[in-house]
## 1
Amino acid sequence: MQMSDAFQARQQELAAPDRALVDGVLAGQRRALAKAITLIESTRLDHQERAQQVLGTLLPSTGRAIRLGISGVPGAGKSTFIEALGNYLIDQGHRLAVLAVDPSSSVTGGSILGDKTRMETLCQREEAFIRPSPSAGSLGGVAEKTREAMLLCEAAGFDVIIVETVGVGQSETTVAGMVDMFVLLQLPNAGDDLQAIKKGIVEIADLVVINKADIDPRAAQVVRAQWNNALHMLRPASPNWSPSVVTISALKQEGIDAFWAQVLKYRDALTPTGEFADKRRRQAVDWMWQLIHSGLNQYFRRHPAVKDALPGLTQEVASGRVTPAAAAYGLLKHLNPESDF
Ligand code: GDP
């Protein structure tokens, strides 16, 4: 079957409620979008199959948004900033979706991002769609759903997508791997840059924003200079973009236009060279491989012979009686005794 035939068949297979869901999403209805995201977040097998059909049908309508990742420690001002930015963009005619990857929700079931009471004015605007982080599963699982939610938002006509995360653990790298531009929101405290350098976050930042510049504008400029120095020490990821630093006050809504100008400059610098599109292609292929890895991992762990042998062999490896390699190859052989590993 040709690819396009397969695509057509999949479209025809959509059941009536899912067809209505797809139409609702394409018409930009926030309710339909919310329902479609709930479907992709569901862990039920039949829901997952339906979700993949819905996503497959919507895929040609995705990809038209600019995708921004925004990260910062709790209190850095993420929600104040996103609210200010969102209102600014909506006033310019954009439609904005905000999704969250919250590492705390996968560990504790609670949420550092505490989405419900945040971004109150933005929540009330028709042109905004705000979705809290899915609470179940591992960070990988949460992020996978966020990627898919992002595609749904694009199909619904949201042309700016913000994926927000907290500066904790793996979540920043995960988010950087799904967006066009990764923005680090910092407090104007000298020394914080060293923290970020230690954690290797600077390498993935395309733009650094020093927030709360209204409190002490001079201190903010000092921190800005420190950041510029730190960024210059690194080899830029692209020959056409050196990460820059802007100071803003999210609270007073100052510097939001300068921030957005940097975002557009970034896109305009990387689009003619093909880097912008290349990055997305790479991210899509990486995502496929992540899903393959996690699928294989699950398949391996669920395999009856592996399940039987794993606890004993783990003990043997821990106590030094069997080498890790012998145990790993032995376990893998259970999947297919004929194959070489
Ligand atoms: P988040 O945890 O990163 O989402 O941070 P919030 O947006 O909730 O902000 C934390 C606190 O900092 C709140 O009390 C905000 O009002 C305050 N805040 C945020 N941005 C600014 C700013 O630009 N200037 C000042 N002075 N306070 C700010």
Note: The chain is about 55% helix and 10% strand.
## 2
Amino acid sequence: MAENIETLLKTSTVYHPTDQTLDQAYIKDYEAAYNASIADPETFWADVAKELEWFSPWDKVLEWNYPWAKWFLGGTCNISYNCLDRHVNSWRKNKVAVIWVGETGEERIFTYAELARQVNRCANALKSLGLNTGDRVTIYLPKIPEQIVAMLACARIGLIHSVVYSGFSAPALESRIKDAEARLIITADYGYDRGKPINLKTVVDQAVANCPTIETSIVVRREKPGIALTDRELDWEEWLAGHSTQCQAEPLDSETPLYFLYTSGTTGKPKGVVHVHGGYMVGTYITTKYVFDLKDEDVYFCVADPGWVTGHSYIVYGPLLNGATILTAEGKPDYPDPGRWWHLIEKYGVSIFYTTPTAIRLLMKYGEDWPGRYDLSTLRVLGSVGEPINPEAWEWFHRVTGGDKPIMDTWWQTETGAILVTPLPCVPLKPGSATRPFLGIEADVVDKAGNSIGTGGGFAVIKKPWPSMMRTIHNDPERYLGYWNNIPGCYTAGDVCHKDEDGYFWFMGRADDVVKVAGNRIGTAEVESALVSHESVVEAAVIGKPHQTAGEMIKAFVILKQGERDTPDLITALKTHVQTELGKIAVPREIEVVTALPKTRSGKIMRRVLKAKELGQDPGDISTLEE
Ligand code: WTA
């Protein structure tokens, strides 16, 4: 299998629907490899797992007790060992693992050996706090290397990390700490946003004040002189000082939880998606390797933040499992100027560049002149993630990077752990399509009853378990079951998808009340609860609406309390309130005051009707509408 794919990866083609000269040989060979992988997925995944190191082998590849899966049963492993020791014990010891560039231009470089030393020291420091296997650690850090070190250190000794994106506000952080019952939080004094310091420590102080499970806070102090700390707070450097740079990775059962990552669903409460060491390691390893055709000589640049799943799987775990050289940069694509990323690509000789449609559309607005100023000839494979990429953005990205690099439009979710539908660089591409399921993944597009639609539109589903799938939702197994009970017999992703005559998948957006704003996943119910918690609001309904750059934007409809007036000041106050409750990413761009909301006779708000009206579309079946 590996040989077939590796031979195929040697040639890449970019296929445009108008180009009828496509050499069908590639697709046939790829199809043969894919068909073999899904004919016997257990053998396929076991062969992949064998490329990694296990402390003791598994007895059974899969136990499938619908819808509960266990992979590599009886095997012991540690993802941190595979990210570090496997390379430190090889010629990669002095290979660069991470190049980090700060917003202010600062640069820090870690070889595999150095990264391992830092992680070991941190793991020993964690042990010194008396934390035990299975304890939870919340990591609320900006995009700095300590984030990666802390994640790997937790993994090394069997602690479960819960990374919270540093743009979330105090109440959002608090609810995540509470749900995880974290004993420790690792944070920093400041993050930066376009050069402006953002005080993270005050957010943590507010959140932790209501979280009795937190015993200690560790603070990375970036600014000098360092901010003052209390008795329960330790400075990161002082905390690490004196601890040994040697720490054996704990042999863990392959089903040991590695992390919780909170993501938005259709209710106001975020879900703590649980991933485990063994299967997640196998899934992120092989997808990074094949989707990006990752080689030792590559410099791999993924623009995500480890606060989201893309950062977990494709900045930290997947690339490190492959022994890659990773570039990670703090800050926005257009700060200090729109040449920021192109400059980094030139400076570090980036060969693999994984970004988002929103970032591409933003850079498009600044024009081709910006990428044109830089030498981008080192680029070899490109990637896109998080939301559908429109063909215009695809074409632009393709053109400004030389016109001959394949773009991997990778579709997946926090819950899936790893990329599931994607091209490989050898698969012919169509701009805007994520093409086909990855090896070993049986994905399909079905109707509500679960019948395969063949060609046309329907719901994206996965028909068989896969190693990197979430194992449950922390504290809420019922919600986990929901993914598998929606359409009988399969995992429902919540995405609407179109399948074309070549079997290519075209993801169209969410089928539920989840909005993707600039690729960030936000539940409309979360924004609604934030709005109604404001004293002037009685009721709120939130929808996603197309937006030129961000893909989607949030629009809120609110009913005000009697006597409240619809003034620009009130609208601003409501926006500020949502920012305080949830964070900047969840603030509605538009808020409209209304006197009534469309509801079903049983009182449920019909967001679908609001959305159709907003977009000037037919609202469809409104027989259940109240009046
Ligand atoms: C959407 C992000 C179209 C999709 C990795 C999915 C995409 C949700 C793509 C998961 C893509 C992600 N094309 N849509 N290539 N990638 N999505 O959990 O709606 O933040 O269900 O994971 O993002 O978002 P999440």
Note: The chain has a mean pLDDT of 94.
## 3
Amino acid sequence: MTNDHCLFCRIVDGDVPADVVHETEHVLAFRDVSPKAPTHVLVIPKRHIASLAETDDGDTTLLGEVMIAARDVARGAGIDEAGFRIVANTGGDGGQTVHHLHVHVLGGRALGWPPG
Ligand code: 5GP
Ligand code: ZN
């Protein structure tokens, strides 16, 4: 259930290369092409969902798997004890630019708050 016109679906399908750091049956994690921190990984469901706003109550397990994968990415990068940030930009005001649900895993430096 991928979408030929979606960049992240094309990564799932192997049509666009990516530096994959973690993969499960339903979830893929790969390095952001334009990293904003020493660790910057995107965690996505393999199934195309446009954004968090497009999920439904039946996606509870899948969303849990995305978050557990984000935890495992942080552990794998060795940033889980120092701390890290999970971000899910959603929709226009949220600054989402790729319309396939993803969470950013950011860490490896002290992160400022609030975001712009
Ligand atoms: P958003 O702005 O939607 O929250 O995040 C999209 C992210 O995807 C951005 O941080 C951007 O750098 C990243 N990105 C855009 N195109 C590609 C790509 O082709 N490969 C990878 N690995 N990341 C990408
Ligand atoms: Zn997609």
Note: Strands lie at 20-23, 27-31, 39-45, 84-87, 103-107.
## 4
Amino acid sequence: MGGDGSDPGFGEDEFLAHRQAEIEAAAAALRAGRLIILPTETVYGLGADAADPAAVAAIFAAKGRPRFNPLIAHVSSLEAAQAIAVLDDRALALARAFWPGPLTLVAPIRDPAAVCDLARAGLDTVAVRVPGHPLSRAVLAAFGGAVVAPSANRSGRPSPTTHADAVDETGAFAALALDGGACAVGLESTVVAVLDGPPRLLRPGAVTRAQLEAVVGPLAEAADDAKRSPGRLALHYAPDAPVRLEASGPEAGEAFLAFGPAPEGAKVFQLSRTGDLVEAAANLFSLLRAADRTKPTAIAVAPIPDVGLGEAINDRLRRAAGFVG
Ligand code: TXA
Ligand code: MG
């Protein structure tokens, strides 16, 4: 697209110039810790500042009956992606071939503060992509940081591919909803993990296996890989210490994750002193890690009410305790 006068409609630059006020408003909303509806070429996303745990918790709350799955960090350029993730030669080759576009790379985290623990579900890897839609890239460039954005639907419903559908689903939770037209791809991005061993296809999408293999050679089968090395594909942070749920307090040697009023202690970590579930969600993974670092005999966790974000917190705690695979 260009402004050479031959294009009867708006070229990309004119299109963006026309929408500068909206782009600035979206960046300001993100800086203020609010959510925005962000069009991408794949599906509409519900976006938040990736570095702000409270804003990320608000995404999970908005989706309803959520699980704390790790989210994709969207950035405006390859250089911005390299600042937050460690992209090796294979990841770089894939990025150069398919970005901007519908490919997400899972790679080791370089800057853990740029994409908070909750957004990564406590993992030391991060999913990154540079979206193809010019409006989303303009918002990301204006904002400057990474924006995590799952699809903008309520949990268990189809991903929205039009502005109207996105607004219907989660518009009530967003400070603003940018209209980027109908999504050109209409299907979520392809997710490829580039860690040790051959790259692995974690989620098929618009960039096909054949296209990926033309750039990096044969992909590992996720299933084979899981057999060879159980747990390596785990999408859940698991503390080293065992986790004891529904605890009224710590026993000798235990760390304690408190929720609501609790006595202070060297190994006591407050999820939320006031019993606020959004605050508890925002603190969950970083406090699990902090508790684990004290090398306790176990991590005891206070009961968390099973309502709202409490459902996702309890789901994650049950996984940490080994009750769910
Ligand atoms: O097209 C898309 O990717 C859309 C638009 C909005 O960009 N976003 C999207 O996000 O589909 P979501 O949250 O629905 O999907 C994220 C996917 C999940 O399959 C998740 O498990 C995977 O990425 N993922 C994220 N971080 C990961 C990590 N550290 N390791 C493995 N998988 C990860
Ligand atoms: Mg989704």
Note: The domain at 12-228 is CATH 3.90.870.10 (DHBP synthase).
